[in-house]
Design brief:
By secondary structure, the protein is an alpha/beta fold. It has four domains: 204 residues, Thiamin diphosphate (ThDP)-binding fold, Pyr/PP domains (Rossmann fold, 3-Layer(aba) Sandwich), CATH 3.40.50.970; 161 residues, Rossmann fold (3-Layer(aba) Sandwich); 190 residues, Thiamin diphosphate (ThDP)-binding fold, Pyr/PP domains (Rossmann fold, 3-Layer(aba) Sandwich), CATH 3.40.50; 31 residues, no CATH class. It has 24 helices and 23 strands. A hairpin with a 2-residue loop joins strand 2 and strand 3. Helix 3 packs parallel to helix 5, helix 10 runs parallel beside helix 14 and helix 11 packs antiparallel against helix 15. The relative contact order is 0.10.
């Protein structure tokens, strides 16, 4: 008879924590824990049992105390992005509103295909004390609660109803978070009583395990078909998305472009794939793109989409390409590779590009096409140089971006999200090092900026502690979520935060005006219920949370202020007013579909509707 397996009696919570502490991954030849720790706010749904287990493992799995659960999730997402999805953080929240606050974060991680583990309190399995504090009661379904809402925003969802289930659930959650195609958030609901129940777990479950992220080789026939299409193309173009970085394919992409002469454009998530001065980097594409990228996109007869999900800001709501342009989707996710009738190459981006390179050996795009793309990029560079020049019109996002770009270190990490800054950073930032730009625009989530900056800085402190994390945020996002300035001070995770104050939600006001509507309820000055106009002293507010801060009156004062921020050892906030109406990057925009009123009493709204719809004929109809 075989020897009986050794067991150890642990609570459910203890087993979860012990398992996570023993999962490793090899990165650049170094073994490190996959889970870098966690973010937590304790309450009656997680403090007594999960808190007890985490206390015993606080060195292996450091726990960062958040100020808001949504912010914790944003920080965890930014951490995972900085680690190119090779590591993740967990978030733990109490039952009820604490957990519900993570819904937005889960949606952000889901949209951006980012690993995030949520260990959240749940109602008592026995139901003996029902209804408990913060429990929602569904009279016809007693199993239904707040945690069920996470099913829509999770790639993996489970509720532990017996301690033994951990043995199957945790490996499945981890496999999902490490899967290149299905990567996304994992949610595990932990009823308060079950967290403390014990089970005799096999000790082998807790043995150290070193994981590797799968590289799926593309199908040879799909590669051959794609090679044939590329050879036939007269005007080929590459769209490089965030998946290029996640698969470690930047070098392969660069080599492929160099050998074939095919121009490369970048998505928002793909910014910092190629350096700004690479001759085949033709710029960012789409609604928040560049004239150079959008011009060649309109003329291209073949688009090789690598590691991108082709969202509407990339495709200009599918008006950016010629109606008869052929798409080839190289993506590890079948769902993304096959969009809009693309010829598919389903597989890892690096292996796919290497296979395509081998098939195209000796072949190059027509030189006239390559040179045309380069000439368009040169014109765009001239525009950006003038657009970011201090003194070029009223104080603007672009001028602030240009000054920081000029003064920062090439390896500093830039974080932005939502509002007008994704467009302005994407269009105007000159990438000086690969993988240094994090513009969250998958879910376009206000409030990500400062919380995400904190998470990015935690990751950066483990890899390049001498480099800065630079956050661009508007006043609207700052007011929505700023408490992780305090978190960064408490944990000594220094950030430099640029608060660019345009008096409200100015980019949505711009959309409102561009569709013929009057300014209404976006800028503070145009909010009818804001009967008393009050300016926020952002510097004073930041100082109250322990940061250093100052206000500058113009972009001309940014150089000295930013230099002081670089020299500081503490989180440093620089506030500056920018114009709400002028100074926007006016070039580089593709069409974007938004709903406009078909009838209105306003002549301007009716005219804007007709104008907006006039270009719909260019929209691809799914083919």
């Amino acid at each position: 008879m075989g020897q009986q397996a050794q067991t150890v009696r642990l609570t459910t919570a203890q087993a979860i924590v012990r398992y996570l502490a023993n999962q490793f991954i090899e990165i650049d030849g170094v073994e490190t824990r996959i889970c870098g720790g966690g973010f937590g706010i304790f309450g009656h749904g997680n403090v007594t049992c999960l808190g007890e287990a985490l206390y015993e493992h606080q060195e292996a799995l450091p726990l960062y105390r958040g100020q808001n659960e949504q912010g914790m999730g944003f920080a965890a997402a930014a951490y995972a992005k900085a680690y190119l999805r090779q590591r993740f953080m967990f978030c733990t929240a109490s039952a009820g509103p604490g957990t519900a606050n993570l819904l937005t974060s889960a949606a952000l991680a889901h949209a951006n295909r980012l690993p995030l583990l949520m260990l959240c309190g749940d109602t008592f399995l026995t139901r003996l004390p029902d209804p408990v504090l913060q429990q929602l009661e569904h009279f016809g379904n007693p199993t239904y609660g707040v945690n069920d809402a996470f099913k829509a925003v999770s790639r993996f969802w489970d509720r532990i109803t017996h301690p033994a289930q951990v043995i199957q659930s945790l490996p499945a959650a981890l496999a999902t978070m490490l899967d290149p195609a299905d990567c996304g958030p994992a949610f595990i609901g932990l009823p308060q009583d079950v967290q403390g129940w014990t089970y005799d777990y096999p000790e082998v479950f807790f043995e150290k395990r070193v994981h590797r992220i799968r590289r799926q080789a593309p199908d040879a026939l799909e590669v051959a078909d794609a090679v044939a299409l590329l050879k036939q193309a007269s005007r080929p173009m590459i769209i490089a998305g965030g998946g290029v970085q996640y698969s470690g394919a930047v070098e392969a992409l660069t080599s492929f472009a160099d050998s074939t002469g095919i121009p490369v454009v970048e998505t928002i998530a793909g910014r910092a794939n190629l350096l700004n001065d690479h001759p085949l980097n033709i710029g960012p594409i789409g609604v928040t793109g560049s004239n150079s990228a959008n011009t060649i996109a309109e003329e291209a007869d073949l688009i090789l989409a690598v590691g991108t999900r082709l969202q509407d800001f990339t495709t200009g709501s599918w008006t950016a390409f010629a109606q008869d342009a052929q798409l080839v989707g190289l993506n590890v996710a079948r769902h993304d590779a096959a969009k809009h009738m693309s010829a598919t190459v389903v597989g890892d981006a690096r292996l796919g590009l290497e296979a395509l390179s081998a098939g195209l050996q000796g072949h190059a795009a027509p030189a006239t096409w390559t040179e045309r793309a380069k000439a368009e990029r040169a014109k765009w560079d001239d525009y950006v140089s003038e657009n970011t020049r201090v003194g070029n019109g009223p104080a603007s996002y672009a001028q602030a971006i240009g000054e920081v770009n000029r003064l920062c270190h090439p390896r500093d990490r830039v974080v932005a999200a939502a509002g007008g800054l994704p467009a302005e950073v994407t269009a105007n930032w000159k990438t000086m090092a690969v993988g240094t730009v994090d513009v969250e625009f998958g879910f376009s989530c206000m409030g990500y900026e400062i919380a995400g900056g904190w998470g990015a800085r935690i990751a950066q402190s483990q890899r390049e502690p001498e480099r800065d994390t630079i956050v661009f945020t508007g006043d609207g996002s700052y007011l929505l979520m700023n408490s992780d300035i305090y978190s960064s001070v408490l944990t000594e995770m220094k950030m430099i935060v640029l608060v660019l104050d345009n008096g409200g939600f100015a980019v949505i006001n711009k959309l409102q005006n561009n569709t013929g509507n009057e300014s209404f309820n976006n800028l503070i000055s145009d909010t009818p219920t804001a009967t008393h106009q009050v300016e926020v002293d952002f510097a004073a507010h930041a100082r109250a949370m322990g940061a250093e801060a100052e206000t500058v009156s113009s972009p001309a004062e940014l150089e000295a202020a930013f230099t002081r921020a670089q020299a500081s050892e503490k989180t440093y906030i620089i506030a500056m007013k920018v114009d709400a109406y002028e100074g926007w990057t006016a070039e580089g925009h593709a069409w974007w579909e938004v709903g406009t009123p078909h009838v209105s009493t306003s002549e301007k709204v009716r005219e804007a509707h007709v104008d907006w719809e006039s270009t719909r004929s260019r929209q691809r109809k799914g083919v």
